[in-house]
Structures are given as C-alpha cells and as structure tokens.
Amino acid sequence: MNSKKINDVSIFFIALLYILPALFAENSVFLLLVCALAFINLNLVRNLNYKFLGIFLLVLAIPLISVFISVLINSKLTANSQVLFQIGSRLIYDTSWHNAVFLTVRTFVLSFISVSYLLGIDYDDFVYSLMRNLKLPVSIGFALLATFNAFSFMRQEFQRIRLAYKMRFQKKKLSLLLIFPVLVSAGRYAYYAGLSMESRGLQAERTYLRKHKFTFWDTVLILSNLVLLAILVYIFWEKGSLQLRLK
Amino acid sequence: MSELYKIKDFQFQYPNSKSVLVYSGTNFINENETLLLRGPSGSGKSTLLYALKGFLPNTIYGKMTGEVLFRNQSISQLSRKQKAQIGFLFQNPAAQMLSRTVWQELAFGMENLEFAAYQIKEKITEYAKIFGIGELLSRQVSELSGGEKQKIALLSILLMQPQVILFDEPTAFLDPDSAQHFIEVFNQIVHNKTIVIVEHNLQYLQKVVDRSLWIDNQGIVQQIPLQQIDWDYKFPKLQLVSTGKTILEISELNFAYKPEKPILTGLNLEVKQGEIVGIVGRNGAGKSTLLKLLAAILKPNSGKIVVFGKKINKYHYKELYKLVGLLFQNPENHFLYETAAKEVQNDLTVLAKFLLKNSANNNPFNLSEGEKRRLSLAIQQKLERQIFLWDEPTFGQDRKNKEILIELLAKMQKAGKTFIIVSHDRPFLDAVCSRILALKDGKLYEQQKD
Hints:
Strand content of chain A: under 5%
Structural class of chain B: alpha/beta
CATH architecture of the largest domain in chain B: 3-Layer(aba) Sandwich
Structural class of chain A: mainly alpha
Strand order of the largest sheet of chain B: 6-7-8-3-9-10
Oligomer: heterodimer
Number of helices of chain B: 13
Helix content of chain B: 25-40%
Strand content of chain B: 25-35%
Shape of chain B: globular
Shape of chain A: flat
C-alpha cells in the first residue's frame, strides 16, 4: 500500500485503537498479539526508521528489566500463592512471577506501540490534516507546528549555548542551568514565529496547497483494524482468558 | 504623488528599555515611491519599519505616542488582511522562517491570502526560475545557509504581491552577484508599489531609489538629496605591517554534510601570522562551514588542519580556544548574560569603543541587530586570541561603525593577530585584507583586490 494514501490522522487513530485494549486487558499473550498486529499494520502503511527503533528497544530494555525485577521482588502475595522456584535464599511465588511478566509486557507493548507510531506519523501532515479535516483552528494548528519546529530549534540552541560557554571557558557544559537560556531562546523563537505568522496574514480562511483528504484507503484500513481487533478480543473472551479491568 | 503614510511626532519606547526612539515632525511616504531609509545603527530604523507594518504597539509591545496613518487611517485599525498587503522582510531572515521545507515557506503567505492552488504553484515555479533558486525548492529550511535563507525570505514576501514592501537590509547576507541580480530582477518585476528600504550596502540601490531619508540618533528626520549620497563608498586601505611565519595550514581538506553533496573538496590554504585574509563566495558555497572546521566545531571528512604546528584534532578545546576565536554569523550565538556589560566583564571602555556605552545595562537580545553585531565584536576583542575567524563582521553596520572596525583591525594586526574574514562586504574586505580568496566548487582561488 502506498504510504501517501493513508492520512496521518488515521495512523494516529489506529495507534489509539491498539493502545486502548493494551491499557485495560490483563493477558500477556493478548497484549503481545495486539503489539504484533499494530506493528505489522504500521509496516504496511509506513516506511519505518528501523535503526532508531532498534536503539529505542535497546534503551527500553533497561527500564523493562527494572520493572520485572522490582515487581518480582515486591509483589504482594495472596493466600493461594505457590512457590515456583528459588533464587539463592529468595523464594519466587507464582503470583509474583505472573505479575512481573504481565507488567513488563504491558510496559513494553505500550511503549513500543506509542514510539513506533510516533515514528510513522509525519507531524506536519498530521497537523495540516487536523486543520483541514477536523476543523482545528489555524491559530492552534500553526502554533502546534511552530512548537514542533521549536524542539529542533531548542536542540540547536542547547548546542549553541554549550559552545558559547566552551569558547569562553565557562564550565557549564552539562549543567541544568543551561535549560533556562534554552527556554528563553524558545520563548524568543515563539515570539518571532508569531510575528512572522501575523506579518504574512495567517487567518482562518486560507488555501491549502497540500491535499490531506481522508480517502477510501483510510476507511479500509480503520475498518479492517477494527474487525481484526474485535476478532482477537472475541477469541480470547470466548476462551475465558481475557479479563478487562475497566474500573 | 499622493501620500500613503503619514508619520506624525512618533515616539516609541520598548519595555525594559530606558531609551525612547523619537521621530520628530511630520513625515510622509508617497504612493509608488522607493524610499531609502538611512541612519546610524541603533537610531530606530527597524522600529520605524515595525510601525509602518502596524506591529506597534499591540503586536510588539511598548509605549507609543504620535500617530502613523496609512491612507489617512490609523495603521493599528487595519484588518489582518489589509496588513498582509504590507510585505515585511525581517532584518534577520532566520527569524522569519516558519516551515520545514522551502516550498512550504514560499507558499505560506500566498495560502493565507487565498490564492488558488494552481496560482501558488505557478508563481513559485516562475519566481524560483527568475531568481535562480530552483535547486533550493526541495530543501529543508534548516539546511540553508544564511544567504539562502535571505533569498527565500525575500521571495516569500514578493510572492504575496503586496502593495507595500518594507525591506530591512535585504542584501545583508547576499553575495554581491546575488544582491545585484536580486535588485535587477526586482526592478523588472515590481511595479507601482511603495517600497521602503533600510540598507547599508548602498552600491546596489542607486538605480532604484527615488528618495532618501536620514534619521539621526536624536530622532531628527532629514531628506537627503540623492546626489549627495555616496553610493559606492570606499574605505582607505589599511597599512598592514609585515607578516610572520605560517601559523595555519590546511591541506587537502574535504567536507560534506551529505555524501552526495560535497562542500569542500581538496581545499588548501596557508596563513601567516598577522595576515588578514578575506574569503568571498556565493551563498551556500561553504564559507561559514570552513570557519566552523577551523574552530573544530565540525570535523573534516579528510585532510589536515594544522594550527601553530599542531594538528587541530590533537588540541584540547581549552588549548585551542586560547588560540582561535570564532565570530559567528548570528551575533546572538555569543550571548550568555543578561546585560551587555556582563558580556564583556563590565569593561565599559570596550563597550564605548563599539558605541555601546548607553546600552551597557540592556539585555543583549533586546539590542538592535547592528548593536548585537557590535557587542559580539566587543566580546571577541576581549578575548586574547591569536587567530580570529570572523563571519560577516559588518552585518548591520553603517559606514562609521565599519570605520571603527577597520581601526580596530589595524591595531590588532599590528599586535600580530591574524584574521580570516568571511564577508560579502567587498569595500570592507578591499580595505582591510592582505589578500582575498574566493571559495568556489569547494576550493579557494586568489582574487584580485580593488
């Protein structure tokens, strides 16, 4: 499927579609299947930056291991808890093990879906599409775009300020104090962006050069994902292995 | 000619600023005239342009008295759409950029004015061809050089086809060929419009200007007959003292931001102590990149840079920055403190030398662009370095300030300091440089001095 055929708002909607069951379901296998479906689906419609995703997974491994160990050790036991195995002098109970596995899987699935879909969404197209199709006011839309641009500007500013200190031999290489001038710079950036928008007549009624319409393919994609997810929920529900924590 | 603007006893004071910008008397700007606005740096020329655009006092806050009328109507009462018919080029083109790609940036204003999509595409393609920026259309704005950003900023204003165009130093970052070309093409395609230009590079403007006003630091506005303007002024040549041993050596230097687009290819250069070397070249040729490589901010792909007999990559940064000082193209890159005085360790003599004594307690970011440049030069002068790499040191400077800079250069050169200066200001380079090199196709070529 040509990635340009799919609207970025649809991609965002599908990400929410997969995140919601991952938030409420309490079955690790179900969560992993949701994650796999979400990833396959995203691969069909967008070219992903696998290198970045790989680095993200490596970094994610550290908090995942921490979550696993922390829950394994600190999980509350029930009256029916059974000893599963022993590590040194510490007894590991089945409830602790299941809780640890489940929470680690949920953390992984939520993080992975969020980040991979974030990588798959073009923020420019996303905001333009919101303005065109969902009537997002242009003042908010362009403010959002300027904010997105400000992130890369802030990164440059951070480097600039570090360099300015370095060149004058001031020791503030990684100090938190650098955050304040960066924030001030971001404020100035926003000020000039506002001036530039006003200067060039930004207003609600405007032409949009780029097309951001919802197409037939968006409907197909959203419906097929809804159906797939519904089938998955039904299968697990029928088997009695899916519990939803809605309270 | 009928009056378009009427400016009567206009005064403006920025918040947190002690000085009041004054424009005394009643002044007019006529329909369809091209007006050149001149005055010393910091006299409030840019502020007057803000007033003519209708930014004051609501968009840019401050205390305003007097009145600015546009077709006999207070400018602050114009609708947003009417104000969009007044095109405005900011002094710092980077401040104007909003979009991610060049194409989006050019289309932004036309989209706001509800031009049809086909018209927008046609006009952008046509203007890109006329102004020779076709290759920039698919680029990201963040990848552009200062001069390229200036071209895009200029075009984005012209594409909106405004009735009035306010230009704040339109040629400041353009190379001489591009500046000349821009003015010629501009003159051909822009008709029946009112144009107000603030500019220090007068050599390009003689053929297009109808009238000239001078604003002094006391706010007295005078009309200056065009015949009295020295359009192509030259500075007296600096008497350079003899130079010493080689202190900077570059051999076979290669650099590219992207492998498919090399910037420097086998570049060689040798600089002797006490030399003042000027580097010129087209926008995007890699002049600023070369200075960043010499300051070890960027790493070359291959080749060697030797400073005082030692390879640059063997230096610890503290050791290197005791020898080499870089003046960034954007003066704001130098500012770290909340007042101008603190930036130069409260050395008011240095500030006075750069005519900044009255701005000592002002926040550096609140100074005019010309004053910001002078403050960054003052910071540079405070640094005891051996080699100075200066990127566009004369940006935003009037003739008097350039003369002060030339005097300073002479003193520093006598003290054995070495300079590599990247600039589009040819009269300045002709006056101060021992030799001028042109950066073309990734290499340096010797150029004849005037």
